[in-house]
Amino acid sequence: MALGFNVGGSLGVVRPDKGFTQSNETVIFKAEFGDGYEQRIANGINNTKQSFELSFVNRPKDEIDDIVDFFASKKGATAFDYTFANTNESGNEETVKVVIEKWNQTWKYDDYYDLKATARRVYEA
Description:
Blueprint: E1 5-6, E2 13-14, E3 21-26, E4 28-32, E5 38-42, E6 48-60, H1 61-74, E7 80-85, E8 93-109, E9 112-121
C-alpha cells in the first residue's frame, strides 16, 4: 500500500508531510511496596499506546477540505488504515488502524492552509 491513507474521491491517497512524530507509552499494572520494591505486569496483550502527529503544510484549500471532510466523516469513532515508513518492519512499511479525534486547520495565505492531526492507534479486527 502507498504511504498515508485513502480519503477516497478524486484526492485518493493522502500522504502527510515528512517528519511526523510517533509517540509510544506502555500501559502496565504496578504494585509499589514501602521498601522501594515493585512488581510490574503488562496491562493487556496490546499494552503500548501509539499516536502519530501528522501535518499537511501549505496545501491548497481543496485538498485540506477533502482531508477534513474525511476526518469528519469518521467522527473520531471509525478506524481506518494508516501506512507509514518503519525501518523495523520488513518492507519498511507498517499499516495500523487509527482514529482521528482532533485536528487543527490554519489559514496560511491566499488559498493555502496547514492541517495538523493526531492519529491514535486502535486495536480491532
